[in-house]
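Quick one, tokens below. Sequence please?
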């Protein structure tokens, strides 16, 4: 059962509902054990992945590699803690795997690795590759006569990569109606605002010019996300959602300070501070 989205303002911070808060607590749990990670990028993704796994995806944890499963390609690989949390939440693997995040003998690293655990569909991290990989998966379904859907999650900074636009053209040319792209558009990159680093102008118009149907919504509103995802599934063309999000959503310090984009060392005191700020 999905808990419907409610939020209210407190200064510049919007509070999230109980399920989203629980998922964020688990992200911090991973950071507490691994002592590192891209926390703000994971926080901006959580509602997107939550709605996909709660309400949209066709998957079976007892048969994680069945040929007809839906595929999620997290092209924005540095946001992987959010993916790990959702996969563990759905029962793909045990909590112990989260506790071993980024440890020498652990299976979950700072970017996803293909099939190292059930549910991880691709090795990503070098931005711009996931879209092409997703197009390959979508085209393969036609060749293999298998009915499944492919979802590719990218960041808005990742849209700077030319390979993304080539992939959009390929999806449109081959009329791959079973692929859906999602842009986690939080407006930030590692070194600053996305618009100042590489201004893409009207992203919606650009996407449509490449032959892809585009949608926009609040990327933290679970009702809007579910409605939009269902519309995308019914679309007869490849489609792309621009999900407007907040980097670090739910913790003001992560939202406000770009130095948190990636931390190679996170102390116990910092984790406690973040927990208390959630």
């Amino acid at each position: 059962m999905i808990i419907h989205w409610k939020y209210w303002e407190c200064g510049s911070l919007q509070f999230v509902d109980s399920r989203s808060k629980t998922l964020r607590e688990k992200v911090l749990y991973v950071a507490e054990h691994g002592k590192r990670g891209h926390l703000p990028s994971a926080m901006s993704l959580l509602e997107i992945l939550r709605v996909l796994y709660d309400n949209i995806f066709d998957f079976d944890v007892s048969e994680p590699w069945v040929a007809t499963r839906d595929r999620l390609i997290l092209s924005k690989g540095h946001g992987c803690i959010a993916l790990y949390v959702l996969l563990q939440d759905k029962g793909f693997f045990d909590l112990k795997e989260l506790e071993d995040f980024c440890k020498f003998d652990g299976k979950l690293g700072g970017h996803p690795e293909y099939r190292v655990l059930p549910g991880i569909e691709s090795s990503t991290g070098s931005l711009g590759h996931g879209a092409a990989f997703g197009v390959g998966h979508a085209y393969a379904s036609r060749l293999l006569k298998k009915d499944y859907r492919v979802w590719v999650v990218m960041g808005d900074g990742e849209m700077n990569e030319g390979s993304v636009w080539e992939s959009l053209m390929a999806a449109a040319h081959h009329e791959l109606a079973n692929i859906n792209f999602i842009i986690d558009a939080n407006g930030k990159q590692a070194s600053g605002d996305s618009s100042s680093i590489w201004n893409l102008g009207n992203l919606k118009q650009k996407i449509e010019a490449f032959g892809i149907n585009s949608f926009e919504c609040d990327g933290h509103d679970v009702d809007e996300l579910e409605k939009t995802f269902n519309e995308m599934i019914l679309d007869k063309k490849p489609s792309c959602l621009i999900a407007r999000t907040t980097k670090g959503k739910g913790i003001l310090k992560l939202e406000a300070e770009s130095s948190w984009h990636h931390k190679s060392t996170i102390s116990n005191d910092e984790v406690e501070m973040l927990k208390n700020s959630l």
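The beta strands are 9-10, 13-14, 71-74, 150-155, 179-185, 188-189, 192-193, 213-218, 239-244. Residues 1-13 have pLDDT under 50 and may be disordered.
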